């Protein structure tokens, strides 16, 4: 298929993706300022968008690109893209499932263990020279504990497998039961939280899961409970989480994601019973390379054939 037109790079993109796109396509960069003038001048040239979950592709941007036909998103989560607006125009959208499952499961395990075993505090205890004054307090333990997975999908199942090896008792909540898994099903997030010691959140973001983990869920998890969120900040009611931690209604939290990234509320940063990561679930060289490669493969396939390798589920039918 012969195509002409430009690929719009929506920042931020990884260096690898940014440079690889320029090597194979005519590229344009969406500026952070003077966007309207830029789009008025160049919007008619754009046939494809490359983005990550930190770059919004909303109805306004889509509307300014009359020839746009495909959006390739580096990331499995794609709530940054207005998929309904794309569907209305027959614009295809791809994402990067599967290739990041191991890295995100590894981050989740590290975060859970660091939070439950207070490893970051223990590190500070040594560095600050406090060890000579006495022993670090005893902590809880992950192995053999009850872990609830809110979102037993690709990544959730990988996390469950790793935790099974530590002798954890796994249960989960999805909207639908997963056939053939040996884990107990809970009928709601609150029911799940009430039945476990540690709750791991790994559902997609977006309006359907906004504040799915609310005060009721946090209270059900309770003063000895640990919450780990590697999904999206929007999935947890952040003010309710801060209040529960401050008031001792929740034991501790390990967080990789926040409501307004990269802004992390001062109230959260001031707490001792949290471990805070800067959205690094998939951030290894190997995995980010695989994600960039899959993003480029989707664009190359679309450029040649009009199809996508890994379309988002909403458009699997359109892309085949
Ligand atoms: P997935 O395979 O689609 O799994 C998502 C799971 O969530 C499914 O089992 C789904 O089951 C469940 N779910 C969806 N909506 C739900 C709801 N309203 N209530 C309860 N369960 C619900 O996705 P994945 O590849 O595992 O990725 C999951 C998410 O992790 C991504 O969308 C992204 O937001 C996040 N993520 C974060 C990082 C990071 O760096 N921190 C990296 C990668 C991914 P049902 O459809 O049956 O409900
Ligand atoms: C990255 C993610 O932050 O895949 C996702 O949904 O949240 C992470 O892997 C991001 O997509 C970087 O490109």
CATH topology of the largest domain: Rossmann fold
Count of domain modules: 2
- Uncertain runs are none
Question: How are the strands ordered across the major sheet?
Answer: 8-7-6-9-10-11-12
The CATH homologous superfamily of the largest domain corresponds to NAD(P)-binding Rossmann-like Domain
SSE series: EHEHEHEHEHHEHEEHEHEHEHEHH
Rg is 22 Å
| Amino-to-carboxy terminus distance | 16 Å
| Bulk shape | elongated
CATH class of the largest domain: Alpha Beta
Number of H- or I-type helical stretches: 13
Mean pLDDT value: 97
Percent range for β-strand residues: 15-25%
Just name the CATH architecture of the largest domain.
3-Layer(aba) Sandwich
Helix content: 25-40%
What's the β-strand tally?
12
How many strands, what sense, and barrel or not for the largest sheet? 7 strands, parallel
Helix/strand/pairing class, anyone?
alpha/beta
Cofactors, ions and other ligands in the entry: NADP nicotinamide-adenine-dinucleotide phosphate, 2-keto-D-gluconic acid
